[in-house]
Amino acid sequence: MPKDSGIGAASKRREDVRFLTGAGNYTDDINIYGQAYVYFLRSDVAHGKINSIDTSAAAEMPGVVRIFTGADFEGVGGLPCGWQVTDRHGQPMQEPAHPVLAQGKVRHVGDPIAAVVADSLQEARDAAEAIELDIEELPAVVNMKAALQEGAPKVHDDLTSNLCYDWGFVEDNKAAVDEAIKNAAHVTTLELVNNRLVANPMEPRVAVGDYSRANDESTLYTTSQNPHVIRLLMGAFVLGIPEHKLRVVAPDVGGGFGTKIFHYAEEAFCTFAAKKCNRPVKWTASRSEAFMSDAHGRDHVTKIELALDADNNFTAIRTETYANMGAYLSTFAPSVPTWLHGTLMAGNYRTPLIYVNVKAVFTNTVPVDAYRGAGRPEATYQLERVVDKAARELGVDPIALRRQNFISEFPYATPVAVEYDTGNYFATMDKLEEVADLAGFEARRKASEASGKLRGLGVNCYIEACGIAPSNLVGQLGARAGLYDAATVRVNATGTISVMVGAHSHGQGHETAFPQVVADMLGIDESMIEIVHGDSSKIPFGMGTYGSRSLAVCGSAMVKATEKIIKKAKKIASHLLEASEADIEVKDGKFTVAGTDKSVAWGDVTLAAYVPHNYPLEDIEPGLEETAFYDPSNFTYPSGAYCCEVELDPDTGKVTIERFAAADDFGNVVNPMIVEGQVHGGIAQGIGQALLENCVYDDEGQLLSASYMDYAMPRADDVPFYVVDHSCQTPCTHNPLGVKGCGEAGAIGSPPAVVNAVIDAIQSGGKNVLHIDMPLSPQRVWAAMQD
Amino acid sequence: MYAFDFEQPKTIAEAVAALADDEAQPLSGGQTLIPTLKQRLAMPSKLVSLTAIPEMKGVCMNGNTLCIGGATPHAVVAAEASAYPALAALASNIGDPAVRNRGTIGGSIANNDPAACYPSAALASGATIVTNSREIAADDYFQGLFQTALEEGEIVTEVRFPVPQAANYQKFVQPASRFALVGVFVAKYADGVRVAVTGASNDGVFRWTEAEAALSANFSPSALDGLSVSADGMIGDLHGTPEYRAHLIGVMTKRAVAAAS
User: Fold this and answer.
1) Are residues B177 and A783, on separate chains, in Cβ contact within 8 Å?
2) Residues of B with CB under 8 A from a CB of A
3) Does the structure show a pLDDT above 60 at A1?
4) What is the pLDDT of residues A623-680, one digit of tens each?
5) If you measure CA to CA, which chain B residue comes closest to A287?
6) Given an 8 Å threshold on Cβ–Cβ distance, is A783 in contact with B251?
7) Taking residues A269-283, what's their average pLDDT?
């Protein structure tokens, strides 16, 4: 029987009422009396030397409050990078300056050069057109391999080259991996591109800076996934504002997908300018600005080799990846192709030897950073494509080849540093075969062929590392932050509860799911519990939401804090019931003396805590509020198996997805409806990457896919009805909820399934096509079939 | 956008008078013009709306000719042009519901976007483009990318489509914009078959005359066997090479004939 409340119940998302009725409070809904508007004048060339900026005429334009250029930010910090990668030779990565407004040079189309603050956006924009710019265009580097050539134009003149780092992992394994590949019975090699994506949250980025002269306090309202991280980075590293004088608020946020993790120039600018102008300053990105200023995702070029012995056991993997950093290092950019990618290269398989080489490269393009999955989709895509290709080359069943090489005993220490605590890859594959109706595929293929179409089936597995992360571990790996989280459970006098959490909900449904956990622990109704998030002045210092971490990390902190509440409440109850504390049980919103009918209601205990007339004041303080910080001891490792079935029109190359099935192991599940929604959204984004989305620059660094006229987002009719299953549950062994995280799985697991299916369809038509790079647009598929 | 004056005349005569100003520009459904203004790529001093002129709206039959007012939105054509099903179907697949409820046939024909749907229907139907001052045959009207026979200040008030014996439009969509990557409109009349292609050519909408000759002799897909369009002069962009577009013209034409016959 499905539960109707608490952990495991499909409680309806309470936040959707305000989102769907227009009552949400997004950053752009915040308007402060006296507010001015900023328009950023952005570079229209990819690379250029700024000879001069003349703002004198523009400054005289109607409504102009003040015009800022890079010169106004001399002496102010640049945007910091939050992760330092050490290269193969023990040297730190090359880390260029990242000014708030361009200084000396512009380095990508969209790089902000000047900012006009005016009474209205219209006036700011008019004045920006009157700024006289003298920019000497320089040759741009766009292609990563070209950027590493001797004599290539340098993105940053003060660096030795465009190479950010050359990372080897595990360096000590390299010789053994080379040897194993040399001696292998079979080696499958695949070169592929993981296409650059633009995150495109429905809500573009917005920032409103405010400054109070009364108490010298700055406030930033911003579209962020992690307000405390922004407060720390912006306060400590950019503007030098101490924490107690800086408040960062991320109210309702309309989708993040990673691109709203990072600290952006516009946030620092609005905070800075509000104080300089003594007026609130607002910026709302247009969609065009979003394309050229939101951090992009993916953009890897990889060669992977998979070695197998004569019995088709995997013996070694070697990869070489070029990872585009763009023109500057975005906040967590260096970690994505390294520690979030290399550590996942074992996948679901017992490959004993793995070596990953990553060259991170600066180019004259928008910075690239984490996007839903961040490194793990890139790892999964390579691995699951090369395994599929190997099966085809060896003439064996791709599912059987996977099963043969599955990890079967846990915990399992991979050769790439991480230890999987639990999982059951056979179970998810069994479940997939059932829910995807693999047995019926041949009949469906025949039906497609009868109508002149080709039909293909693609299967893959995935594993990811979520619940980021143990702070001491990531610290050793170069993170310049801790990655714990925090929650405060504030029980009010009448028994209602406010839970202040460090996690931030921007679509995930925390306001519904988190109360389910607390309600379950106390046996009270979910409606008595409210989640407070997004305001650094209200919530404890938590690290925000990304990497499918909110429930596993912040949810665990909330459990710990609730346990403290229960412990104290039992003390109060034992006093009220005149019983021993050890005999008190919590159930159904009551505290009962075990084995008796003596009880006291939750609300009577909470009232006693705040009206302590009859209260053990000599033993405990009044009040009922507890905070806990939780730092996990390991990542969590969700896993699963996905299946995609496509139909292909051989005359046009058009691919349609007919069926898609997912069997995931997320450990315990708090709200199955929300989990399914997360998987649906993730798969849609994965299908978007596989078939549609592509961020393209020309050789001069002009962004060709700069609007929805050329950047293809998935629409409802591009995706099928999904079959998703999460009944295979191996609970996480090291967090109190046994949860693993589900936010990114769909985006990680789906691209290889789609591509494997398209290749299968083409092969079924008699064409020996082994690979096509994403997106598998009609043109690309058709062209591949002509060769 | 930049600031501009706005007028909304009630008659064609008033609209023509309002457009006499040098910097005035007509505004129909605004599906191209408004985004252009938002990007500050145009700076008209005055916009003259054509959407409140009753005599420019509506769908009616006159003998065997379907007449559509220039300011008629696509959604109305989709709903009311049942006398010409292929045209109604074309209108029902332009853009999304918001576009179809704002965008107009006159606006589309006047803009002559090389990937728009309507120009192919007008050209394949041998339609007559009626303006405030004259009637122009479709063959004379479309003159290349965004180029038409319209003079400055001239308004498309009506488009007249002779209803064919059989017709069909096949659109292969560009994945991002869902404009036509290649669109082919085939119309069969008593005196022959006309085939017009949109989305494909650097010269805008054009007639595929070899296909017309073959289909006039034998209106079946097999009549097109062995015929192909040269990739020379075809559009090449992110979404399709000239070769791919040339290939799709053949595929879409066959499908249109199969669907129509």
Assistant:
1) no
2) 2-3, 39-40, 172, 175-177, 181, 238-241, 244, 247-248, 251
3) no
4) 999 999 999 999 999 999 999 999 999 999 999 999 999 999 999 999 999 999 999 9
5) B39
6) no
7) 98
Of A129, A651, A712, the CB nearest to B175: A712
Tell me how crowded residue A115 is: count the other CB atoms within 10 A of its CB.
Answer: 28
Q: Which residues of B touch A779 (CB under 8 A)?
A: 239-241, 244
Calculate the average pLDDT of chain A: 97
Per-residue model confidence (pLDDT) at position A139? 98
Assess if CATH 3.90.1150.10 describes domain B56-162.
Answer: no
Which residue reads 């591509």 in tokens? Answer: A755
Q: What is the CATH number of domain A300-469+634-786?
A: 3.30.365.10
- Matching CATH topology for A300-469+634-786 and A484-630? yes
Interface with B, mutate which of A61, A289, A649, A652 (most B CBs under 10 A): A652
Domain extent listing, chain B: 5-49, 56-162, 166-260
The answer to whether the CB atoms of B244 and A779 lie below 8 A apart is: yes
Nearest to A651 among B40, B176, B251 (CB): B251
The pLDDT of residue A469: 81
Tell which residue, A425, A463, A294, A313, has the closest CA to residue A367. Answer: A294
Q: Which residues of B touch A61 (CB under 8 A)?
A: none
Say whether the peptide bond before residue A334 is cis (omega within 30 degrees of 0): no
CB contact under 8 A, A125 and B40: yes
Give this complex's ipTM: 0.96
Q: What is the DSSP string of A585-627?
A: EEETTEEEETTSS-EEEHHHHHHHHHSTTSS-TTTS-S--EEE
Q: Is the pLDDT of residue A284 over 70?
A: yes
B5-49 folds as 3.30.43
Mean predicted confidence (pLDDT) in A683-709: 98
Residue in chain B nearest A717 by alpha carbon = B175
What architecture is domain B166-260? Answer: 2-Layer Sandwich (3.30)
- Look at A777 and B239 and tell me if their CB atoms are within 8 Å: yes
Residue A137 vs residues A45, A106, A168: alpha-carbon distances, Å: 7, 9, 36
Contact A779 B3 (CB under 8 A): no
Inter-chain touch B176–A288, beta carbons under 8 Å: no
Please give the Cα distance from A750 to A168 (Å, whole number).
Answer: 28
Per the DSSP assignment, residues forming a β-bridge with A365 are none
Name the residue type at position A54.
D
Using CB atoms, which residue from B2, B172, B177 is nearest to A652? B172
Q: Do A779 and B247 touch (CB under 8 A)?
A: no
Q: Given 3.90.470.10, 3.90.650.10, 3.40.47.10, 3.90.1170.50, which CATH number is that of A27-138+202-255+260-293?
A: 3.90.1170.50
- Give pLDDT < 70 ranges for chain B: none
| DSSP 8-class letter at A177 | H
Q: Using CA of residue A676, residue A682, residue A686, residue A687, what is the dihedral sign? A: positive
Mean pLDDT, rounded, for A416-439: 97
> Does domain A484-630 sit in CATH 3.30.365.10?
yes
- Tell me which amino acid residue B127 is: A
The Cα B50–Cα B27 span in angstroms is 6
User: Alpha carbon of A486 to those of A227, A331, A492, A626, B202: distances in Å?
Assistant: 13, 22, 19, 11, 60
Distance from B240 to chain A by nearest Cα, in Å?
6
Q: pLDDT tens digits for B35-60?
A: 999 999 999 999 999 999 999 999 99
**Residue A4's pLDDT is what?**
87
